[in-house]
Structures are given as C-alpha cells and as structure tokens.
C-alpha cells in the first residue's frame, strides 16, 4: 500500500468531526473542493468509501467510523509528541462564572497542576455565555437544562441544590427552622438570581427584616460568612464551608431551581489529549 499523506489524514479528520466538507475547509483555511478531493483520493487508496455523501452533509460508512477513531488517536499521539518538543505549554481554556471560579474552581486547580504540570489552564470568569465554536474557549461550566444546541457535547456536572446558610454566630439567633416560611423572619442576603424574591412571591411572603442585595453569589456567601444574615446559595459553592463548620445549613431544596450545572464543549473541535485530561479531571472532581 502506498504511503498516506499526513495532510490528507488531517483533512479526513476535519471532515469526520464536522461531517461537512465546507466546515472542514473553513477550519483548515482551504477550499471545499480541496478537502473533498483529498478525501476521495484517500478512499481510492483504501479501496472503500469512508462517507455517504448526502445533500445535507456527510454520514459515516461503517469503515469510515472505525477508521476515524484510529486516525483521531494517531493524530493525538503525533500532536502530543510535537508538543513535548515545543517550548510552549499547551493551553486549555475554560469559562465559568466569577462565583463558580472563586467558590469552587480556584481551590482545586492546585491539585490539577500537580497532576498535569505540563498543561496550562486559562480560566475566563464571566457571566456572559461563550460561543464555544468561535470564541477560542474549550470548555464551559454553566447552569442550563436539556436540550442544548446540537453542536455541543455535554456532561452533567452537578444537580442544583439550593441551601439557606448562615454563619455559626448568626445561627445562634435563629429559632428552629421547620419550614421555608420560617426563614423570612430573619435578615436575608440575596444575589442577582433574586431567589428570595421569587420564593417569597410564590408563597406570598415578605421578609420581616430587610434584604441585603449583591450582584454576585460569591459576595452573598461572603456576607453570610461574616454574620450578616441568611443567603440562598448553590450547595456546590458552600460545601467546603459547611464541612468546616464555617456555615450552617438551615434548609435545602432541589426543586426550586430547574437548571443544573453542565460541562459543555463543541463537537466540532478535535479533542486533544490535553483537553481530555482537563475534561476527565473536571468530571472526577464533580460533587457526588
């Protein structure tokens, strides 16, 4: 068998990931015809079709699907070997909200760096959803619900459980809480999700004391830690403080919030070994 051209294999890989010659050509900055011709030449060499050509795009043949799995693994090995000789570290980008970054991610990145010292992680803390196909972002952890955009892959990271929490000192002022309505007798701390307002509206309740308002969940948690009142926060953000006894949980519920935390990434970008390492680490750290 004649030797295969590496560029032909990369064009096949791009076409296989996108299942579209035009999108593969855009990724590789060449013409759609050039990609289609290279794939056709590859099929001639192999003696069998790798794709079914259809008006709306491509679908794999059985041979094409198994061949792409092997080629993708081989290209990852080549890219990894090249990266090891490169003076620059591989960078994987991750976007999360500022509160997710400060209350969950930051404390755990030290452990990731110990396991994978050769991989650089760039964290973008933003409230604005990233375009995972166009913004140069590899992964996002966001609140959301199914179904997601057809171009995205996803993994459930954490079910949303909201906890009403306060400091150990403030808890001494709180009588026994037997129902959520009891919480409205105390000073409440609210963030930009306005969950106390929504909860009060649904139960026709108004707080007997004032509400302290912040624009970030993390600030509401910090205010609760300093003894300013009771905040309603995702359990994932306060688990560490609850275990250490710095915060006390007065009430919790999984039904109020209909969204959960998901890890999202584009189907159209090739999954490098560095990205796989970050993804596997994130999923290994997800709350149980």
Features:
Arc Repressor Mutant, subunit A, alpha/beta, about 290 residues, 12 strands, D-Maltodextrin-Binding Protein, domain 2, 5-stranded mixed beta sheet, 3 domains
What structural category arises from helix and sheet content?
alpha/beta
- Low-confidence segments: none
Q: Could you tell me the number of beta strands?
A: 12
Average of pLDDT: 91
How is the largest sheet built, in terms of strand order? 4-3-5-12-6
Overall helicity: 40-55%
* CATH topology term of the largest domain: D-Maltodextrin-Binding Protein, domain 2
Biggest sheet overview: 5 strands, mixed
Structural features, described:
The chain is of the alpha/beta class and 288 residues long. It folds into 3 domains: 6-85, Winged helix-like DNA-binding domain superfamily/Winged helix DNA-binding domain (Arc Repressor Mutant, subunit A, Orthogonal Bundle), CATH 1.10.10.10; 90-159 and 260-285, Periplasmic binding protein-like II (D-Maltodextrin-Binding Protein, domain 2, 3-Layer(aba) Sandwich), CATH 3.40.190; 162-253, D-Maltodextrin-Binding Protein, domain 2, CATH 3.40.190.10. It has helices at 6-18, 21-28, 32-46, 62-85, 98-115, 168-171, 195-203, 217-225, 235-243, 273-285; strands at residues 51-54, 57-60, 90-96, 119-125, 139-144, 152-158, 162-167, 188-190, 211-213, 230-234, 247-253, 260-266. The chain has a 5-stranded mixed sheet with strand order 4-3-5-12-6. It has a 5-stranded mixed sheet with strand order 9-8-10-7-11, with helices on both faces. Helix 1 (6-18) packs across helix 2 (21-28) and helix 1 (6-18) packs across helix 3. The chain is elongated and about 80 Å long. The N and C termini lie far apart (51 Å).
């Amino acid at each position: 068998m004649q030797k295969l051209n590496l560029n032909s294999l990369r064009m096949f890989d791009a076409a296989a990931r996108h299942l579209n010659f035009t999108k593969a050509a855009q990724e590789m900055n060449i013409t759609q015809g050039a990609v289609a011709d290279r794939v056709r030449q590859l099929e001639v060499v192999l003696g069998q079709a790798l794709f079914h050509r259809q008006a709306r795009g491509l679908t794999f043949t059985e041979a094409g699907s198994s061949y792409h799995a092997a080629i993708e693994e081989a290209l990852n090995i080549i890219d990894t070997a090249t990266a090891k000789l490169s003076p620059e570290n591989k960078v994987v980008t991750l976007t999360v909200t500022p509160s997710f970054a400060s209350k969950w991610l930051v404390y755990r990145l030290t452990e990731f760096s110990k396991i994978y010292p050769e991989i650089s992680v760039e964290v973008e803390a933003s409230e604005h959803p990233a375009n995972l196909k166009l913004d140069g972002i590899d992964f996002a952890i966001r609140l959301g619900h199914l179904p997601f955009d057809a171009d995205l892959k996803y993994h459930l990271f954490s079910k949303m459980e909201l906890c009403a929490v306060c400091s150990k000192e403030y808890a001494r002022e709180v009588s026994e809480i037997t129902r959520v309505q009891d919480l409205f007798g105390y000073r409440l701390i609210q963030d930009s999700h306005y969950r106390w307002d929504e909860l009060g509206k649904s139960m026709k309740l108004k707080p007997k004391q004032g509400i302290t308002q912040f624009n970030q969940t993390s600030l509401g948690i910090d205010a609760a830690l300093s003894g300013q009142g009771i905040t309603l926060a995702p359990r994932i953000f306060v688990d560490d403080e609850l275990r250490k006894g710095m915060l006390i949980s007065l009430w919790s519920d999984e039904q109020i919030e209909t969204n959960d935390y998901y890890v999202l990434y584009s189907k159209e970008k090739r999954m490098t070994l560095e990205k796989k390492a970050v993804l596997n680490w994130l999923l290994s750290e997800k709350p149980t």
